[in-house]
From TrEMBL:
EC annotation from Swiss-Prot or TrEMBL: 1.2.4.4
Family, as annotated: Belongs to the BCKDHA family.
Coiled-coil regions listed in the entry: none
Presence of the UniProt keyword Oxidoreductase in the record: yes
UniProt entry tagged with the keyword Kinase: no
Protein name (record): 2-oxoisovalerate dehydrogenase subunit alpha
Reaction catalyzed: N(6)-[(R)-lipoyl]-L-lysyl-[protein] + 3-methyl-2-oxobutanoate + H(+) = N(6)-[(R)-S(8)-2-methylpropanoyldihydrolipoyl]-L-lysyl-[protein] + CO2
Gene: pdhA_1
């Protein structure tokens, strides 16, 4: 489902600013950005794409059980994440790697989960309110809405204090819009006027199912159907992602209720490394979206503003350094004891877990006794 007449685009595929009446309300957000802030957008996108490539290589070399690529979706993620304030709570799905890093999650923590070394958890309080990856499709929208309801009840919205007023943003994909959880989350968000932004990354494929089979209308209209103000943006335009998200988060913190953003982007790689997209996608589609690459677009924009080759060389070097660092650290991880699989299943000690842990220990001991 390509761009529509309603799509907000601030930066053209060629990297030039788009001047039209529909953009006027968002231009002030962009005008306030310094050169350093713009370079920060580019740095996050480039460095984490390099991380993404390295992680895929690690999986192919047997160092990870699985990898979940985010190649092509960097602008949607970086722009929206940098639009949030530290007190805002972000609820991801499972592909938001650059957002995790922006919020302070060590990338090796994500890789350790996909290597089978951990259950994948981190404490959101210690990572700038970035909540846990969620593999149960769409369920994070319910978690986010419930949390946003609690923020409302705690009086943390519409106080006029910019350091206190808090919003929630939840990320989900086009495939999850077919799950009942997402609809239920929007029902409660609209009913309770939660301080919340639903951020849909429409990457056009729910594994092998195209979005056109799931919805006969643009997905941002789903939000409108629940009475939630909604907007569709060019998700490969980091400026649009930043400005539109910031405007909607500001409104949420001020007590104006939930909103819905559909970011039109594209999953350039496979759904995961266990998927073969060549079985269901056409080369013409890849070519179309390749010409709208978010990183190339933004680099053209920055060069047009006078950015030097040194800026891009330094950023590329940082990406290479991160790739080398995560490769070294992930291969040095010690294999955890088998018994750790029973840890943290429940918040308190549980007799069933204790029995299963002992049963595994006895089973392993039986091999030693038979030698």
């Amino acid at each position: 489902m390509p761009y529509t007449a309603a799509t907000v685009q601030l930066l053209s595929p060629e990297g030039t600013l788009v001047q039209r009446d529909a953009n006027e309300q968002y231009i002030p957000y962009v005008d306030k950005l310094s050169d350093d802030a713009l370079y920060e957008f580019h740095r996050h996108m480039v460095v984490m794409r390099r991380f993404d490539i390295e992680a895929a290589n690690l999986q192919r070399q047997g160092q990870l059980a699985l990898w979940i690529p985010s190649n092509g979706q960097e602008a949607a993620q970086v722009g929206s994440a940098l639009a949030a304030k530290p007190q805002d709570h972000l609820f991801p799905a499972y592909r938001e790697h650059v957002i995790a890093r922006i919020r302070g999650v060590d990338p090796v923590t994500i890789l350790a989960m996909l290597r089978g070394h951990s259950h994948g958890g981190w404490d959101p309080k210690e990572h700038n309110n970035f909540h846990l990856y969620t593999l149960v499709i769409g369920s994070q929208t319910l978690h986010a809405t419930g949390y946003a309801m609690g923020i409302n009840l705690d009086g943390m919205v519409g106080t006029g204090d910019p350091d206190k007023d808090t919003a929630v943003m939840v990320y989900f994909g086009d495939g999850s819009t077919s799950q009942g959880d997402v609809s239920e989350a929007m029902v409660f968000a609209a009913s309770y006027q939660t301080p919340q932004v639903f951020f849909l990354q429409n990457n056009h494929w729910a594994i092998s199912v195209p979005v056109s089979r799931q919805s006969r209308t643009p997905l941002y209209l789903r939000g409108e159907g629940f009475g939630i103000p909604s907007v569709q943006i060019d998700g490969n335009d980091v400026l649009a992602s930043f400005a539109v998200t910031k405007a909607n988060l500001d409104a949420a913190r001020s007590g104006h209720g939930p909103s819905f953003i559909e970011a039109l982007t594209y999953r350039m790689g496979a759904h995961t490394t266990s998927d073969d997209p060549s079985k269901y996608r056409h080369d013409s589609e890849l070519e179309f979206w390749g010409q709208r690459d978010p990183i190339t677009r933004f680099e053209n924009f920055l060069r047009g503003r006078g950015a030097s080759d040194t800026v891009f060389a330094d950023i590329a070097a940082e990406g290479d350094d991160l790739a080398a660092d995560i490769r070294k650290r992930i291969t040095e991880l010690e294999v955890p004891a088998n018994s750790t699989m029973f840890d943290h299943v429940y918040s308190d000690p549980h007799p069933v877990m204790d029995a299963q842990r002992q049963a595994l220990a006895d089973f392993e001991t039986s091999f030693e006794e038979g030698q």
